[in-house]
Queue: 3 jobs
Job 1
Amino acid sequence: MTTELSRRALLLAGAAAALPALAQPLYATRPIKLVVPYPPGGTADAIARALADRLKEQVGQPVIVDNKAGASGTIGMDAVAKAAPDGYTLAFSAISPLVLSPYLGKVPYDPDNDLTPVVSVMYSPVLLLATPASGARDFRDLMGGARDRPKSVRWATSGNGSLGHLMFEQLALQSKVQMVHVPYKGGGQQLTDALSGQFEVLSINAGPTLTEHIKSGRLRPLAVGAPKRLDSLPTVPTLAELGYPKANLSSQFGVFAPAKLPERLLDRIHGEIVTAMQHPDVRNRMIASDNVPTGGSVKEFAREIAAESAENSRLIKSAGIKGD
């Protein structure tokens, strides 16, 4: 009798242990598409591919990176918004197609209702750099010179309505200093002209190429838009430290899914992405390019998106910013 009771107890214990696994949705049984709304070869593409490699190992199915670039990321995000909410189409993107693009022009999706935030993956700092045309030793020196000589500082960004442009407008609004905005169409020509001193400062997302120019002394970091100082630039203060918290902007990247994704499946995908993010291959890829791993819950990511969207709406309207 004792042996029979022990056998039954073991069977019941085994069944109970199996319940959490049985409660998980079956995922995945076919290839997963990870849409990247940017061209191949950039930092976001590299991080997405590192994530895809880890997910493939975790779920046992191919994870195909699909670059759908154009229109500031809205083309790729529209493809995800129109996909079936079954977990087999995801996006790795900055949050700007949800919190910035809708205020600069019409987008083909409802940013509040057509996409599901899954998890924040990283933030990409925005650096404020002095070019060879500027004699500013640090941020306060830059602002002092700009205050004494209105419109003497030309500030280049990657375009009207870009994150760098919002940083410019926030800083100008608070400081009351008159500077000249120089919008480019993307970062390539902007960086080329920066190195030849075509303007005094630029705001641009961190990346390996910039790191090389900073180390060589061709570009001088004055401030950084980030929640905290970068490990690679420990002496460079954030704009929040310098007294400009609303100008302290960085690009947040995360994973998104179509709307109406079942909650149990959302939780499963969130868990898989968080696990992939913790792998050294993925973390080291982010850190090497001066991007900072984040994480957090689904609800936290959604709240961060909502807060940034509201702030961008206010600034864009008050400053009269128009998209390119």
Job 2
Amino acid sequence: MRLAVVVNPDAGLGGRLGFKGSDGRAAEARAAGAEDRAGPRMRLCLEHLSDLARTPIEIIAWDGRMGGDWIPEDYTSTGQTPETTDADSTAKFISAHDPDLFLYAGGDGTTRDIVNALGDREVPIVGVPGGVKMHSGCFATTPKAAAEVVWSFITGDLMVARTEVMDLDEEVYRQGEWKVRMYGEAFTPASPRWMQGAKEQVQRESESETLEAMSMHIDSLVEQNPDLMIVWGSGGTLRQMCKESGYDATLLGIDIQHNGKMYNDLNEQGLLDIISQHDGEKMLLLSPMGGQGFLIGRGNLQLSPKVLRLIGIENILGIATPAKLLGLNEVRIDTGDVDLDQEIRDRKYLKMLQGYRTTRVIRVSAD
């Protein structure tokens, strides 16, 4: 089994800074203090793969930030990471190799570059989630899940299937609009347990009354406790609820409502600065991503482990309309911190608001 490993070293850099993607902004992100995300998550994946493997796996990669820097054991070097990396660098690596499987770390942009470079070749790919946003079905749910998929594929326990590669207009995305389309298809090991599936949009116009009712529920909590700090997560459901309450929230950012004021589109440091000054009760509202079920770790990297611990995981309230809940039997967590992930999973269930004073509990995925 020959496994080709490639990392987009710039993927995910802008997440905690509140960037809506890292394309063309890597230097800006690093200058602002951003740390590597994709590389360390690839290392975590490969460390777990090493623990799982009962037979040797031949790993091929380039030396440097696009591969070798993140590989914990021996590998076969097939080249050197260029001094400056971009989409062409990823395409060059893919075009130069013909392994049994490509394991890559990055986001949606990286996936598009890989699929484009593969052309008609039907080599399966598995994505280690390392970007700001990941809509495509070829990503595993977590770095460790990616290792499980790779090992199960190697041992013949998983078959390969086609999955959708989703494309998002990043320029429009940065302006607060979500426009996604199917870019193409890729081959990936099929695992409903370990692979995340493609993102879907499930909100319907007919649910306006439900959103209004859920907004009234949040308003009533604030009326009962005027000092309650509300941290609004990203997404159309929460944005509409916030609008019903008379506030403007950003579609793709994280906002804070407190004492009648709104603090919009906060990055990690902005969230830490405001939340740390508040000694009263806090509530984090999060809406799961349709089709994937991610509550944390997709499109909301500003909610770093530091931020989540400061808010308190016991203060998380899920928000989901009945239509979204129909296709959701559990939620997924990928905070970027293994210990925090486990702490949340150990709770087994999270509370989900689905109407005025109407909640249900939903299972937290154990994987």
Job 3
Amino acid sequence: MKIFSSGFYRMHSGMLIFLFGTILCYCFFINTLGSVPIWAFTVWNLMITLSLVSSPVIMGFFCLAALIYAIKSWQYVITQLSARNNEFLYHSISSFGKWQQFKSWFYVQFNIFLPLIVYALFAGIIGFNFGHYIIPIVILLYLLALIIVSVAIYVRHSNRLIDIDRQILLIRLLRNWNKSFFLLYTLFVFDKLKITYLITKAIAWMLIIGTFAVFSDIKDESAVPNLVVLMIVTAHSLLIYNEFRFNQKYLYFSRNFPYSMSKQFLGSLLNYAILMLPELLWFIGNFGIHSVSLLLQAFSILILFRSLLYWIGLSIKNYLIWIFVLFNLVFLIILYRITWLLPPVFVSTAYFIFQKNYLNKNLID
């Protein structure tokens, strides 16, 4: 409990306080605009909670958030198990029987999930009072299933011998292949950032479905695909940042390689083409020849996002601010139907920023 549960809360306390504090403040302190009957105040104040227990769509978003929360807990626990100062845990945990291990890990994971469980119980009580019974039960069963899956992962990991020579299947298959220099980040993603990649894909496809559902009544048929392009690129902004950080950390010496400036500038597109292959195939299959212009827009936004990092550096805060600004700018461009400006303007701007800051030696700091 001290190492895993308490440590998890210490590391993620800011996120939890912000998330649940915002929800609780909304439920109990929000005021409505205008005159509302006294009997309706409870319904208005509990609108988010009522939506959770009455709408399958909101329940789906909650389940996705719970899955992401579970994955973060898996990462934290496994990282702590692998820490050198916690190596004694492998001996002490494995000395118990599997059932005792299961109960102990269940207790730990239950405490990690306590904020979600408390809110799910609160939502269930509200739902029962307003006649919603099925979704609250489904949510609680889903959280129980996540806890059991988490416990199974912990038991398996804590009883597994550490093999320092273990390699994933992908590395074994590609070990003897000639690899392009510009594909090293893709291999790094499939080796070390698999969870980040899967979460990014889940968010991207949720945004695709949500955009078509929310903007289905727009008369301009080109607007929705353009919005989908913007959503997908923004969803992959973390992978873009990680690619820049990977190059700065592991491939900083590559600036001495005999690659032209334009090749260095466009080489990263090979990574993005493979990492976004599911979305590329979906665009081609659904939009045909029109997908060419959409893909040009997507890669122009991507390359600008990446080039900004050569100017900003590794400051994730400044990077996210610029992502927010560019997101709103592109959104306005889509509304005014001038998306044909994106490829020439964004690519030329990106190349100018890249050329001016490529040899900036302060970026590594």
